[in-house]
C-alpha cells in the first residue's frame, strides 16, 4: 500500500455533487456520494455488506440509500435502517461513512480513521477570501500514472523549460538555478528568470511590450496538494521577490487525488490578481492550461508505462531531484507511521536505551 489514508483529499468540485448517487474511487476505496436534503455531501462505502453489490447501483430514498439487490437500506451515517422481510437489524449490517467538508467550492474527504479527521487541517489560502483575487475552478486531468509521480512533477520547476516550451516556459530558464527548501512542513522549489522575453501565457494575459522578470514558486503540501505561484512583471520595475503582487500573479492549484496505484486525478484550478470577473479570460486561461497539462500527462503516462517494465539498471538522480527525493521519504515515513501504533514511553522497561 502506497497511500496515506489519514489525509484530506479532493473528491471534486462542489458543483459535481447533487441528489444523484455518484460512484467514486479514492486510494483504492470505492465510494458512493450524494448531497443530502440539508445540503451536506455524504460519502459511504460503495458496497452492500450482504452480497457486495455497489450501493451506487441502488437508489436513493430520501437521505437513505437502498441496495439494488435485496433492498437493504442505509442512512447517511452508514447504519442499516431496513432489511426487507425481517424486523431485526444485524449489528454487522453497516457501511463505512467518511468525513466530508465542502468549502470554497471544493469537496474534501477524509479517507482514514474518522476520529482523526480535523477540518482545520484542510488546505486553505487567504486569497480564496480576498476580493482582490479572482477564484476560478478549472477541470480534472485523468492520468494513468501513480500519484507520487504526478505530485513530484509539481515541485519541479526544471521540467517547465522542456515540457512546456510554448506555454509555461521557454529556453531562457534552462540553466537558471533552482532554489530548494525542505526544512518546513511545505516543500518549496523556486527560481526567478530575470530580463527575459515573457512566456506564451503572459504574452497573452500580461500585455508586456518588453522583457520581464518572471518567477515560479512550487509549494508541495503533504500528501499531494501543490501550489504553483507564477507570474511576470516588467524588468524595469525591479520588483523584489516579496512584492510579487505588483506583477501579474497567478496561483495554479493542483489537488492530486490517488485513485488506484495506476490512476490519478489532478483537480486543477487557479486564482489570479488580474482580469477580475472576466469569464472570457478564464476560458482562455483554461484552454492554455489544458494544453500545458496535457503535455505533463503524456510525459507522466509514458514514465509510468516504463516503470512497469523490467529495469536493467538503477535509475539515476541528479541535482534537480532534491525536493522530489525529500517528498518520497516523507510519504514513506507517513505511510509507515500509519502501519504501526506508538504506545509511548514504557513503564518499567526491560531495556535501557543508550542512544
UniProtKB/TrEMBL annotation:
<feature type="domain" description="Rieske">
    <location>
        <begin position="8"/>
        <end position="109"/>
    </location>
</feature>
<dbReference type="InterPro" id="IPR036922">
    <property type="entry name" value="Rieske_2Fe-2S_sf"/>
</dbReference>
<dbReference type="InterPro" id="IPR050584">
    <property type="entry name" value="Cholesterol_7-desaturase"/>
</dbReference>
<keyword id="KW-0411">Iron-sulfur</keyword>
<keyword id="KW-0408">Iron</keyword>
<dbReference type="GO" id="GO:0051537">
    <property type="term" value="F:2 iron, 2 sulfur cluster binding"/>
</dbReference>
<dbReference type="InterPro" id="IPR017941">
    <property type="entry name" value="Rieske_2Fe-2S"/>
</dbReference>
<keyword id="KW-0001">2Fe-2S</keyword>
<dbReference type="Pfam" id="PF00355">
    <property type="entry name" value="Rieske"/>
</dbReference>
<dbReference type="GO" id="GO:0051213">
    <property type="term" value="F:dioxygenase activity"/>
</dbReference>
<keyword id="KW-0223">Dioxygenase</keyword>
<keyword id="KW-0479">Metal-binding</keyword>
<dbReference type="InterPro" id="IPR044043">
    <property type="entry name" value="VanA_C_cat"/>
</dbReference>
<keyword id="KW-0560">Oxidoreductase</keyword>
<dbReference type="GO" id="GO:0046872">
    <property type="term" value="F:metal ion binding"/>
</dbReference>
<dbReference type="Pfam" id="PF19112">
    <property type="entry name" value="VanA_C"/>
</dbReference>
<protein>
    <submittedName>
        <fullName>Aromatic ring-hydroxylating dioxygenase subunit alpha</fullName>
    </submittedName>
</protein>
Amino acid at each position: 500500500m502506497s497511500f496515506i489514508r489519514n489525509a484530506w483529499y479532493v473528491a471534486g468540485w462542489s458543483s459535481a455533487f447533487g441528489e444523484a448517487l455518484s460512484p467514486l474511487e479514492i486510494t483504492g476505496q470505492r465510494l458512493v456520494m450524494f448531497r443530502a436534503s440539508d445540503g451536506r455531501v455524504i460519502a459511504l462505502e460503495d458496497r452492500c455488506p450482504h452480497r457486495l453489490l455497489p450501493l451506487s447501483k441502488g437508489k436513493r430514498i430520501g437521505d437513505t440509500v437502498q441496495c439494488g439487490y435485496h433492498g437493504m437500506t442505509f442512512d447517511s451515517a452508514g447504519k442499516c435502517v431496513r432489511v426487507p422481510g425481517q424486523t431485526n437489524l444485524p449489528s454487522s449490517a453497516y457501511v463505512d461513512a467518511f468525513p466530508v467538508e465542502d468549502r470554497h467550492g471544493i469537496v474534501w474527504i477524509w479517507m482514514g480513521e474518522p476520529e482523526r479527521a480535523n477540518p482545520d487541517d484542510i488546505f486553505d489560502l487567504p486569497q480564496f477570501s480576498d476580493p482582490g483575487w479572482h477564484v476560478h475552478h478549472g477541470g480534472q486531468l485523468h492520468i494513468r500514472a501513480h500519484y507520487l509521480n504526478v505530485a513530484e512533477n509539481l515541485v519541479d520547476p526544471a521540467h517547465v523549460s522542456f515540457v512546456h516550451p510554448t506555454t509555461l516556459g521557454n529556453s531562457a530558464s534552462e540553466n537558471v538555478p533552482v532554489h530548494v527548501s525542505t526544512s518546513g512542513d511545505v516543500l518549496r522549489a523556486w527560481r526567478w528568470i530575470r530580463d527575459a522575453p515573457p512566456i506564451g501565457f503572459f504574452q497573452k494575459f500580461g500585455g508586456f511590450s518588453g522583457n520581464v522578470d518572471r518567477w515560479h514558486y512550487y509549494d508541495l503540501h503533504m500528501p499531494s496538494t501543490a501550489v504553483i505561484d507564477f507570474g511576470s512583471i516588467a524588468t524595469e520595475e525591479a520588483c523584489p521577490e516579496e512584492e510579487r503582487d505588483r506583477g501579474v500573479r497567478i496561483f495554479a492549484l493542483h489537488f492530486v487525488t490517488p485513485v488506484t496505484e495506476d490512476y490519478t486525478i489532478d483537480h486543477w484550478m487557479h486564482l489570479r490578481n488580474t482580469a477580475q470577473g472576466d469569464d472570457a479570460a478564464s476560458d482562455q486561461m483554461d484552454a492554455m492550461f489544458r494544453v500545458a497539462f496535457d503535455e505533463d500527462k503524456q510525459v507522466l503516462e509514458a514514465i509510468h508505462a516504463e516503470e512497469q517494465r523490467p529495469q536493467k539498471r538503477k535509475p539515476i538522480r541528479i541535482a534537480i531531484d532534491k525536493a522530489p527525493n525529500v517528498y518520497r521519504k516523507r510519504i514513506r515515513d507517513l505511510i509507515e507511521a500509519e502501519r504501526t501504533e506508538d504506545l509511548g514511553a514504557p513503564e518499567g522497561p526491560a531495556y535501557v536505551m543508550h542512544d
